[in-house]
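for the recovery benchmark. C-alpha cells below, seq after
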C-alpha cells in the first residue's frame, strides 16, 4: 500500500503470538489501535484470528532493527507509572475505596483502567531497557510525565501546547550541533555505498529496484551515430539478391 517500507505489530489473541504485518495499512493500523476494552479485536481475513494492539507482546522498536533499519529513533510516549501506592492489606472495602477517590490527599489506589494499562506494558519494561542501551537506538522521552495513558480529556492541552514539538525542536538542535546526526548520515552513506556494490536484486523492494535501475549504464553502440557500416547483414544480403533477380527478369 505504501511506497516506503512499512510494518505493523499486532497481538494475535487467538494464537497468543506476535504478528508483524507489511500489507493492508488501514486494516492492521486499525488492529493495532484495538486497545481493550475500548475497541473490539479485528478479525484477520487471512486466517480468522483476532488481532489487538501489539503493545501487549512487544512495545519496543526492535522489529525496525530486524527489518533492516541501521538507526532507530525510539520516542517513548507511555505514561509514567506511579510507584507510591497504598497498601490496603488483605481485603478492600468499597466505601473506603470511594473515600480514597474523593480525598485528593489520600494515598493512590490504582483503578481497573490503570491496572489494565500496567499489565499491557509489564512484559516490555526489561526489553525496553535493553533497546535503550543499544548502540543503534536513539531514545527520546518528551516531558509528558504528568499525563496518563487514559487522559483523553487532556488532548487539547497536549496538542495545542506543542509538548512534543517544542521538545523535539530543542533536542534535534542539540543533535545538529553534536555528531549524532552526522553519524547517522555517515552510516547511511556507507550503507548506500555497500548496496551499490551488489549486483543481485534478491529481496529488493520497489525503492531499491528503482535505485538499482537508475544505476544501470545504457548500452553503448559499437558504431558512432554518424557512422554507417559497409558490411551487410544476412537479411540485407538476401534483400539485395532478390532485387538483382527481379532486375534480371525485367531485362
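predicted aa per position
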Amino acid at each position: 500500500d505504501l511506497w516506503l517500507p512499512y510494518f505493523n505489530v499486532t497481538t494475535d489473541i487467538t494464537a497468543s503470538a506476535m504478528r508483524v504485518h507489511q500489507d493492508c495499512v488501514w486494516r492492521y493500523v486499525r488492529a493495532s489501535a484495538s486497545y481493550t476494552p475500548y475497541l473490539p479485536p479485528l478479525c484477520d481475513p487471512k486466517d480468522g484470528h483476532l488481532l489487538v494492539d501489539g503493545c501487549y507482546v512487544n512495545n519496543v522498536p526492535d522489529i525496525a532493527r530486524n527489518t533492516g533499519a541501521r538507526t532507530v529513533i525510539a520516542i517513548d510516549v507511555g505514561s509514567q507509572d506511579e510507584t507510591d501506592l497504598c497498601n490496603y492489606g488483605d481485603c478492600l472495602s468499597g466505601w473506603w475505596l470511594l473515600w480514597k477517590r474523593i480525598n485528593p490527599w489520600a494515598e493512590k489506589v490504582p483503578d481497573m483502567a490503570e491496572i489494565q494499562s500496567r499489565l499491557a506494558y509489564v512484559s516490555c519494561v526489561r526489553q525496553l531497557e535493553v533497546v535503550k542501551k543499544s548502540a543503534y537506538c536513539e531514545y527520546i522521552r518528551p516531558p509528558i510525565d504528568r499525563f496518563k495513558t487514559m487522559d483523553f480529556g487532556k488532548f487539547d492541552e497536549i496538542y495545542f501546547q506543542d509538548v512534543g514539538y517544542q521538545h523535539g525542536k530543542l533536542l534535534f538542535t542539540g543533535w545538529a550541533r553534536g555528531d549524532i546526526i552526522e553519524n547517522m548520515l555517515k552510516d547511511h552513506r556507507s550503507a548506500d555505498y555497500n548496496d551499490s556494490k551488489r549486483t543481485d536484486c534478491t529481496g529488493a523492494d520497489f525503492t531499491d529496484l528503482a535505485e538499482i535501475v537508475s544505476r544501470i549504464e545504457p548500452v553503448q553502440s559499437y558504431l558512432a551515430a554518424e557512422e554507417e557500416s559497409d558490411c551487410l547483414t544476412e537479411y540485407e544480403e538476401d534483400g539485395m539478391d532478390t532485387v538483382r533477380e527481379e532486375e534480371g527478369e525485367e531485362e
